[in-house]
Structure formats: C-alpha cells, structure tokens
Fold this sequence. Notes:
By secondary structure, the protein is α/β, with parallel strands linked by helices. 35% of the residues lie in helices and 22% in strands.
Amino acid sequence: MNSDQVTLVGQVFESYVSEYHKNDILLILKERDEDAHYPVVVNAMTLFETNMEIGEYFTVFPNEVLTIFDSALRRSALTILQSLPEPEGFSMKQNLHARISGLPVCPELVREHIPKTKDVGHFLSVTGTVIRTSVVKVLEYERDYMCNKCKHVFAVQADFEQYYTFCWPSSCPSLESCDSSKFTCLSGLSSSPARCRDYQEIKIQEQVQRLSVGSIPRSMKVILEDDLVDSCKSGDDLTIYGVVMQRWKPFQRDVRCEVEIVLKSNYVQVNNEQSSGMVMDEEVRKEFEEFWEHYKCDPFAGRNEILASLCPQVFGMYLVKLAVAMVLAGGIQRTDAAGTRVRGESHLLLVGDPGTGKSQFLKYAAKITPRSVLTTGIGSTSAGLTVTAVKDSGEWNLEAGALVLADAGLCCIDEFNSLKEHDRTSIHEAMEQQTISVAKAGLVCKLNTRTTILAATNPKGQYDPQESVSVNIALGSPLLSRFDLVLVLLDTRNEDWDRIISSFILENKGHPSKSESLWSMEKMRAYFCLIRGLQPTLSDGSKQVLLRYYQMQRQRDSRNAARTTIRLLESLIRLAEAHARLMFRNTVTLEDAITVVAVMESSMQGGALLGGVNVLHTSFPKSPRAQYRRQCELILEKLELQSLLSEELRRLERPPGLLK
Ligand SMILES: [Zn+2]
C-alpha cells in the first residue's frame, strides 16, 4: 500500500471509531492498568458500509490494514482523552487493538471447515472446537539494530512466517545512501528483551456435528497474541477471526522444509452457550404440542410411542429405552444450600454380555444429540477421556479428551472399564463436579466437563450374580456411584423370549408399535432439543415419593450407609425432572416420581422395594395405563403413602376424557 492509501484508511477508521466506539474507548481510558492490552470490537459489516473502499483494502491487505487500524485507534483515543473537560481518572493506553467481527455471511468469509493453502493471505472466520492449548509464552517481536558505518539505528520485526525468528538485515535502511551490510544488534545482548508480547498456540478442530457422516474432522493451529491469550480453553466452541498465514522453520541443510498453514487470530468469540442450540421451528413445536394433545388421556401411551422410536432396531428392552430417554432429556442444574453446584446431567452405565445391544444404544444416542462424542474407555486419542499433557516439537500442550470435547453435550463411552491409568484419577471429579483441574508440565487450568455420560461395559468374564456389579466389571464402587443408573443386562436363558426375538428378527414383525408410526431420527433429535429447554418444578406429591424412597433405601443400607448417599436423592430428582421433560410438561408429577422409582428399582443403586428386575427381558406393556396403576399400588403401598395412593387411584378411575 502506498502512503496515500495508508493515510486514507487511517483517517476513515479514526473517524469511524470516534463516532461508533467513543464509549468503549472512554471505558478503556478509565482503566487503571496502562500496560495492559485492550480490544475494541468492530463490526465489519457496519464499517464497510460507511466506506466501501476500506473494505476493499482490508480484503487485499488484511495484515497491513489491521496495523493501520490499531494506530488510528490510538490517535482516536488520544483525541478523546484530550477533549475531556475533567481528565482525572483517565489515562492514555498504548496497547489498543481493533478486533474485527461480524463478517458478511458468505462461504468465502465465514467458514465451518478448516481453510486450505489457497486461503493464505485472506481474512476470514472459522468455527471450531479447541482441542489443544499450549503454555503461554513471552515472545520478543522487535529488536533494534545499528548500522556499523553510519550509526543509523532502526527496528526489525521478527518474521511471523519463520516462527518469529529475527532475520539479519541485508542493507542499511538509512535515507543517506549508505551501502553498508554490517550491523550490530542492540537488543537482547545484556538486558532481557524489551519489546515482548504474550503468545499462545491452540489447535482447533472442525465441529463434529457439522461434518457429514463418516468424515474425519480436520484441525489447524491458531496463534493468539496479547489480550487474546488465555481467552479460551479446551472444549470451547469458538469463532475465530483472523488471517490465514503460512510459516516454515528456518532452512537447514538436509532437513525437509515443511510449510504449515495457521490462522493468526485477530478476534476470538467463545460461543459455548449456543453450542447445542438448534433453531426450533414454530411448526415443529406445534407438531409436538398436537402429539401430546392427542395423548392427553393416556400420556404413557404417547411416551411409549417415542420410546419405541428410540433405537428401533433393538427389540424390546423397554426399560433400557426408558432409561436412555430419561438420561438424554436430562435434569436441571441447581445450587445446594452450601452453594455447591449440583449437576443437571445424568449418567447411565449399561453392563451386559456382548451382543445385548448396548453399543447400538450408544451409537443411536450419539446420532440424535447435536454435540456428542462417541469413544471407548481407552479413548480415541492419546488424551483419553479427560486431559493429558503432550509434548509437540519441544513444547508442552494440553490435549483435551472426550469428556472435555463433549462439554455441554453427550459423551458415549463403550468398553468403559478399559479406562487409562491417568483417567482413573480425574474421572471422579469430571463426572461429579464436572470439571477437570490440571496442573501438569507448568500448565494450570480448570476445564469444564458438563456432559451427560452414556457408558457401556462388558463383565470381566462370566457374570456372577452372586457377586456385586463392582466385582463383576472390575470398577471401584466410588466410580460406579457417580452413575445415576447402572443397568445390568444379563443374557439368562429364557425360551419364550428367544422365540419372540427370533420372530422379530426373521419376520420383522411383532414389533411393540407399528413401524409406520415410528419417529424419524430428525424428529427425535428435534424433540430432545426442544424438551431440554423445559424447566419442570417438583410437585408436593412427587417430592414426598422421592424423599420417602430415598429414606427407605438408606435404612435398608444402614450397615453400609456410605453406599446410599445424598447422591441418590440428587439422582432421583434429576431423573424425575428428566421424565417430566420427556412427557413434555412443566411440573414433575406423581407419574414421573413413580416411574423413576420403578426404574431405580431395576438399577444397581435401588432394589429396596421390588428387588431386581432383569432389564434385558422387558417388553413394552400392552396397556401402559394399567401398568402405571399397578406400579402405583405396589410402590406407594411399600412407601406407606396411603393417602397419595387413594388420591391417585381416584384420579385414574375418572372417565378417560376427564383425566387430567
Ligand atoms: Zn548505514
């Protein structure tokens, strides 16, 4: 760019920020720290609308124009400061950065995929998930040199394209025609480097949910500098605005030169809150409302139609489908009296022999959940399930494991008992507090793992019903207690069942629900997205049932009270909220509480009332309403809640049209 162009761009930008960002600048001038770096976020669309020419220069020379923007910003700040009638409490800041956001939405500028070589030199935005973060370094970016002949002193910038190495100047830039090529470096000889900035590299990966089935996500390094350093962590979903650059290591004899494509970021936008958000069509919502209106008299029949659509290739397994659906719906996060956060996400573990369909549930659940990771206990990457410190070309990096990448989503873990050693220590915290604290190789941070866990595992050898689940699958009970539900699927001989299954497989008939009424995967995905937004509150009746059940379970386990902790009550509440969401309502009713107790009774954590049910052989009830009535009688009688029972029975006996 020539000097006229530089002046023009500078003037346009200076008047633009003075007009549109005066308040932002005033707030920065009011800050105390004069050496800190401050961003001013500018919307590209609005800027380019005020002056088309500036947009054209920006497209062609993004790096040059960004530098001009920063100095224009400083000039504007100085003018604003000098025009203040009462300048006390305000001070000039030298390190101001124009951060460009809001690019026009077009495929060249707004990307969901990793840029390629042909994009080098272009300013664009990329959306991705952080999978790796490096230690923060201090980078020396400028040094002074002196010409040995004319004593002219000049600054040389470190070369980004050569990993910020300093290239020895080749000729004297002095205006007097000096032809010297001998210089002395004045910086970094005796004192520590003077002109430095914070520097960090991260790695982002294309978001799995935006990829077509079967493609492997690609990744790319992103350079963060100044105030952008430490602005994000592993697992975060980002939109990064920046210039695609290439860089190579200084040439060395006999070493192949490799060119790497990186994104030199200008602005980092963390969008975790919207990550699982799916735009919900009003039409779709209406469709679901009509569905429930249709089943107003028999809501359990409506629910069972949804359950039948869940993993339809697996026959029966009614209870497992119910449990999976509840876990996918999820409960509500709350803060207890002591101020501790209680998670809203539920965790489910399926224990069973190979061939019982466990893995199919995992695959199905991952498909209908927008932000999901499907992995095994040993992990698909070296990071495993939690996080690990890896050394990459001499630098320590933190690499995020599956639970971090599935933050705010679903993590499906097959072969759960093949956990890596380093995961075993941190997975308890990851599951309960939903964070992972890291202090490795000089990297200290806390990563979020607010994820729902759906795990499956085989027994270690033949399952021995005489032994505990913990012994059978070789996982410690503290770890097992982090699961809200542990369902054991045993392939015990049952000839009637075998006959039904084989007829289902051979003739594909005898299905619990007519296959034409099954919901499509898209519909299931939309439904679960929608209900996760519901915030059901507990009714008095449901509270009574859950609390009484919890107390009874505690009494039964009195010799081993450690097993039944307050976690059980928290699980019950979460699952009851989840069931209310599944039933598309804003109140947790007695129906939800009774169902949760029935499911808990089939889980390892329960068994106080009915004592174990083989969940593998549970078929869909012919009359869901009659089944609920039986469960009501059984459970409320055992819980000695007679008045609740008679009230509920009276409600059920009213003619179907009046059932409310
Ligand atoms: Zn010279």
